[in-house]
Structure formats: C-alpha cells, structure tokens
C-alpha cells in the first residue's frame, strides 16, 4: 500500500505544482485567472498566498564557515532552478489540476544562471542566494600539526583527481501523499512516506505553527526512500497548508519527471588528493580538497555531506597526518540532500589514491594496500580526525576478497593475455562505512536531531507483543529484523511479535531511518528494552513459582525455563500466563513490581559506528566500443552480529547495485544555461538487472564491543564499495594503454573517448619521434 494506493477521502482535492522552466528568473506578475476559470479548479496558491501560513525556513546552525540561508515555502521573488515550484493548483481531479497548471501565466524575467562550481566561484559571479557571498555556502578546513613535516619527509607526492556527477534517488514511488485537515479537532494528518516520522512531524508542526499533538504523521509503505524521504520538503508543506486553508483533504502524486529534476539530488563532488609517500608505497600524510556543487536551496546544512567525506577519508589506512579543505558552492540546480551513502565517493577517492600510488611507484596495488592497512594490532584506532574504530577488520576483508576474486591469477592473466581487443582490469576497494552517527556528530554537523533511538515493547494480557521504535522502513525489512532483535532480548518467539512503526502517534519519538542506524540504534534499543522487560517477566514468574529470586529462570521462545542441577527444564509457565498475571492479577505480583508490561527505552550510542568491507571486481573493456563487462564481483564484509543474514545480503546487493548504477550510467545532467537535461528515464539511465553482475558475498563478522547486541550498520557501504571497485577496475584496465577516467559515470562513450585520447597522444609521440 504505497501512498498513491490510499483511497481518496471524500471531498479530496488533487494538487499539481506549477514549476519554473528557467534555471534562474525573477517572478513577475502571476496571472492565474484562466487556470482558476477551468472547471473543477478550487484554488491557485502562490508563495505570497502561503507565506502567512507556513513560516520561512532559516538554515543557520552554529557551524564554523557555514553561511545562513533562508527559504520560504515557495519562492517569492525569484526561482533558482528548473523545477523550482512557484504555485500549487488544487482541483477536483488531477487532470483538471494538470490542465490548469499550464494556464498559469507568469511574467518571467530570465536571469543568467550558474551551472557549475567553476561558474559559481568565478570572480564577479552573479549570486544564487543574495545572502551567500561568492556563492560559497560552506568552507571547512582541517590539518594535523605534523602534516607539513610529513610532506617534507616524503620521497614522492602523488596527486589524483576524482569527479562524481549529480545523481538522484529514484524511489519506485515518487514523493506522493495526502494531507487531511480535521477542522473540528484542529488536527492535521500527513500520509506521506517518511523515513523519520517524528522529526517530520516536528518540522511540519513548527512550520505551520501547530503543536505536535495537532499533527499525526502516518507513513505508508514507501517503495524506496534512499534519503529523499526524511524531512518534509516544500511540496508536503504546501499540501498541509492548502488542506488547512481550504478545509479539504488534498493529495499529490509526484510525476517521475518532477522526482528526477526537483526532488532532491546529490553526489556532485570534485576531489583532489595529494599523498606524501615513501618509495615503498607507505603513506606519511594525505591532503584532500573537495568542491561540492550543492544546488540552489538549503534543505539540509550545506556542510554536512561533503564534511562526512573529509571526516572519514583515511578509512582503513594507518597514516595519522591529514588535512582537508571542503568548499560547498551554490548553483542554479536542484538542491542537494542526503542520498544513500552521502559520502559515496569516499572509498573510491581513498582506494583510487592507493592505485595512483601503486602506479606512480611501479608497485602492486594489493601490496600497497597491505602495507598501509590497519592490522588487528592497531585496533582500537583513533583516526586523524578523531574518529574511533572499535573493531574494524580491514586487512581481513581485503585478503578474503582478493583471494575469492583470484587476484594473483588475474594479475598473471593480465600480463599474458592478448589485449588487442579487450583490456582486463582488476579493482579493489576497502570501505570504512560510518554509520549510526552519534549525538556529537549531529551537533557538530548542525543537523537537528541526535543519535539516539527509542524503543517500546508492550505485552498485552494475552501475551501478544507489540514492538515499536521511531524508524520507518523504506524497504529494509524492519518488520522482520526489529522483531528479531526484540525477540532476542526478550526471549520470545519472533512470530509472536508484531512490529508497529511509521505512525507518530503510536511509535515512540525516535530519530528515524537514516545513516544506516536501523539495526544498531533501533535494533540495539529494542534488544535492550527486551532484556529489561524479560527481567520483569522473570521476577513475576519467580513469584508465581514460589521462588525467592528469578536467578534460576530464563525465557526462551516464550517459555519460562528453570535451571535445576545445571539443566534447563520447562517450568510449566509461559509468557502468556505471566502476561495475564502482570495485567489482570496484580495482587500476585512481588513487592515493588508495577502492574502491566510496557518498556520504553532510549539508546544513545556513545560514538559513531564504523563497519568495514572490501569490494573487488574484474572487468573487461572492449577497446573498439568502450563497453564494460563485469566478469566477477566479490564483497567481503564485517558488520558485526548479523540480525538477519538474508536481509544483510539483500541490502548489500541493493547498495552495491546503487553504487554501480551511479558509477556506470546515472547522470542528472544540466546544460551550460542551467537547463535540466535528464527529466525522464530516457535521459536518466539506471542500471537494469542485465547491467549488473552476480554478487559473491563473504562475511567476516566481528561483533562490535560498543553495541549491546554487537551490531554494526551496513546498508550504505555497498554503494561506496561498488563505485570504488568498479572505477578502480576500469582505470586498472585503461592504465595499460595510458588512459584514465577521472570522472564518473564510466559510460562506454566516455571510456571510448579516454581510449581515443590516449591513442592520439601515443600517435603524436610516435610522429614526433
Ligand atoms: N541488518 C542486520 N544485521 C546487521 C546490520 C543490518 O540484519 N548487522 C539489517 C537491519 O536490521 C535492517 C537492514 O539490515 O533491516 C539495514 O540495516 P542498517 O544498515 O542498520 O540500515 P538502516 O536500517 O538504518 O537503513 C537505512 C539505510 C539507508 S541510510 C538508506 S538511504 C536505505 C537503506 O538503508 N534506503 C533504502 N536501504 C534501503 N533499502 C531499500 N530497499 N530501500 C531504501 O530506500
């Protein structure tokens, strides 16, 4: 039941947005008379109509180097990208609303547009936001004290460049939903897919001037969110305000074209690294410079995503001297937001730098990694940026993946084979995936929220168990895995537990699903809540069995067991009997035990969790066409305790597919005039099953000592590893003929162009000789 499957309530209006066809333009008079005159049109609302009903968002967290930005619910005087919404049409049918949208006449004054970081950073560049001088919305810099000395000591400095193109989330169901205003109760219900129902509700209530108890967020199934469905975006707020103003339910179905061009986008980053190395390939120090193209508006603090890349870049390697400069620029493009693995480029940058070092020094790529990798003796490890790894195993996953791929044999084959038609490339990428971000991380990044998650387990008199927390699934299978963690803590049968999530009225306030925190923070909280509730159940059971203490009791699969002479035996009591007593027979409870069985527990992980994996692949490149074929693909991962091995594998498949799809094909392209060029799947290519390899997965689980159940998050690492392994393999193949791809996507056309360029350079050299 996705949002658009929900039947319309009586009297429901349909919304369609009028959007800017220009990258940058002043909004003159808006003439909606013709639109309004169309049969079935109930209202046409502009930014000025809504400004009094939805407050302006001010993005100004106290973060060094971050410029404040304001954003009204709809632009008042100027649009900033193609697809920027300017008005909302409300009509009896979506067709009438669509027709009416075309009749709204706007006196545009087209302005010059900024379509790249180069244009944004040029002297005298026009401003995307008048509040942001020089279009640089964020700048952050960091260096360890010994960095300069490390470079002075180095035998060589190796530089490498990495570019990533704009992409977008592509959920199966675009953003869609219903806003229902109950005027009698003065209550708003938002049936929008959201990964984080409570923060969503807090934001809706704040922007509309309502109390949180006046807003219920009831998220339907999402068909994918991938980070696009966390906070309420402007369309959701317009619907809420329109429903309240018109006192009628309002629904909206985003089109695929709108989702591709005006949902949220991500990933457009240029990174340059310089590595100070010894002749045997050891890194003494590293610098990185990141320029991120953020787009036109700030839905999230602009420093946040690029900063994560810089924060975790050292990844699995041992060097301690490190520095970065991170600049984030405004352009006239769709605004950026988190997208599964906002730090997706990181592992390609770090492991691509490893390959650049190996190439510059004539060393083997695997050997350079081994020499720099953290070993078991190094753990626990504090990185140059102060991050703590409590249980990483990067060398183990590297060796496991290389072995499974047959690295040594492939290297021999590479030398022996006839490469005149097809080039063989081998790619390695070890990922250190930051996940389950801590409260300190959120504070420092300026993101409203924290790292904690709240769990609730309620056992009813019949023994029925309801588990809940603030997460909402966009496809992670929480109904299964959260039931498993609650069951593990409680000692109940998984099948006796129902997971109820997504409704802000019934679930406890939590931070939601993002940053791969579901398993460790949500699962961890439910596990701990289960343990606490079990202690209460056993205390009651002890009283029912006339025992002085519950020490010899345990509950497994919902049966109370008793240890007699070292052997566990059935006690004759079950969860159902204890639950009935707890609720309905309080006179039998031991002293100090309250009636009822409801445990609420908040778990705030002390530090950000780190997980590692190594992705490895072999590719073949057709020299005549530039076509890539992935011959083998291996991923070895350590995500601590796996709650559900099948779901972990599914998440690895999905995340890796997303990384590969982005690295091979996807591009939310813009013209030099800022025009959006990828408005349908004809232009925005995503990988299909036959573009992707079969994944060979290996597991190397080392439970996290910091998590109550040993769990580490894992669902974004595949995206990071997919990009890195693929691009490193492509460049490994291309290096044999002196070519290189500094930027994604690795489409056949771009590979072919790189091959041609290398060939022309070679021919030029021969001619000159
Ligand atoms: N899991 C497990 N054992 C572990 C780690 C994870 O069994 N040691 C299970 C978890 O219980 C959960 C799943 O694997 O069911 C993913 O867990 P985790 O890595 O904690 O990630 P989250 O639950 O926080 O999910 C969020 C993450 C993000 S950030 C995005 S974006 C994302 C994603 O996961 N969007 C998705 N996966 C997605 N999958 C689908 N199908 N659709 C999306 O929109």
What features would you describe in this structure?
This protein has 769 residues and is α+β, with helices and mostly antiparallel strands. It folds into 3 domains: 3-111 and 174-221 and 229-262, Aldehyde Oxidoreductase, domain 3; 265-438 and 607-762, Aldehyde oxidase/xanthine dehydrogenase, molybdopterin binding domain (Aldehyde Oxidoreductase, domain 4, 2-Layer Sandwich), CATH 3.30.365.10; 452-603, Aldehyde oxidase/xanthine dehydrogenase, molybdopterin binding domain (Aldehyde Oxidoreductase, domain 4, 2-Layer Sandwich). It contains 20 helices and 32 strands. The protein has a 7-stranded mixed β-sheet, sandwiched between helices. Strands 9-19-18-17-10 form a 5-stranded mixed β-sheet, sandwiched between helices. Helix 10 (346-361) packs across helix 11, helix 16 (518-544) crosses helix 17 (575-584) and helix 18 packs across helix 19. It is globular. The model has no long low-confidence stretch (mean pLDDT 97). It binds pterin cytosine dinucleotide (MCN). Pterin cytosine dinucleotide binds at residues 224-227, 340, 474-478, 481, 513-520, 523, 639-644, 647-648, 651, 654, 711-716. Residues 224-227, 340, 474-478, 481, 513-520, 523, 639-644, 647-648, 651, 654, 711-716 line the site of pterin cytosine dinucleotide (MCN). Keywords: Molybdenum, Oxidoreductase. It comes from Belnapia arida. Residues 2-112 form the Aldehyde oxidase/xanthine dehydrogenase a/b hammerhead domain. It holds the Pfam family MoCoBD_1.
